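Minutes, project check-in
Item: structure for the 52-residue chain
Input as provided by the requester:
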Amino acid sequence: MTVDVFDGEQNVGELWGSVTLKPQSASSVDLFSLNRYVRWTDARVYLTRMSD
């Protein structure tokens, strides 16, 4: 998964991680980034399905 973080309309960082999703259960993901931490106001999450 990829998470883009924004301050208003300005993209201020990108984070990546991997998660397994299963029906009827909760999942968590550890995210990492090469960007330095900055304040942000909005995030967009992109999920990519891995092929079997």
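Outcome recorded: The beta strands are 2-7, 10-16, 42-46.
No further action items on this chain.
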